[in-house]
Amino acid sequence: MARYLALLGSINVGGNRVTMGELREALEREDFEDVETVVASGNILFSYDERPSDGLAEMLAWIVKDRFDIDTFAAVRSKDELEAAIEGNPFVADGEENQVHTVFLDRPLDREAFERFAAGYTGPERIAPGEREFFVDFREGVGNSKLTQAMARTKLFDFRSTARNLRSLRRMLQKMGD
């Protein structure tokens, strides 16, 4: 069995409350094994027969919708995919690990739209494209950022996303083991 990380979006924000114990139980009923929540809400480690992570993402979103009536999506990554997302972040070397984020997407990034946005964006954040994610260095803090609103205003992007900081991603990767 392969080990995976699922990063659920929209869990325990707004009215979308679910305990991690309830979530673990729901996944175990659906043949997910070694289910463990880690770092914070919506981060789940699990074992499952090896398969493309996109199919597992759809399955997890369906389970959460069916069991808890929460419309979410899951960014699912194998250990190698998570390592690649961390190593591919160009801000790892010189950013603060609690300010450097990877924004995981529900589909491949529209690189052309991202590049058009980035060329005109004047905020303090540094941003860079990935494959199924993009990277942000919130140099002046996440709470002060206007990046999300600026992206929404452009209408260039049609994706769901969930972000995690570098510190959390490294801890999750470590928990995935060898």
Q: Give the C-alpha Rg.
A: 16 Å
Strand coverage percent:
15-25%
Spatial separation of the terminal alpha carbons: 13 Å
In the sheet with the most strands, the strands line up as: 2-3-1-4
**Any idea what the shape is?**
globular
The beta-strand count equals: 8
Please state the structural category.
Answer: alpha+beta
Mean pLDDT: 90
**Unreliable parts:** none
Organism: Croceibacterium soli
Pfam families: DUF1697
Protein name: DUF1697 domain-containing protein
Description of the structure:
InterPro entries: DUF1697 (IPR012545). Pfam families: DUF1697. This is DUF1697 domain-containing protein. It comes from Croceibacterium soli. With 178 residues, the chain is an alpha+beta fold. The chain folds into two domains: 77 residues, SP0830-like domains (Alpha-Beta Plaits), CATH 3.30.70.1280; 95 residues. It has six helices and eight strands; from the N terminus they run E-H-E-E-H-E-H-E-H-E-E-H-E-H. Strands 2-3-1-4 form a four-stranded antiparallel beta sheet, with helices on both faces. Helix 3 runs antiparallel to helix 6. The longest helix has 16 residues. It is globular.
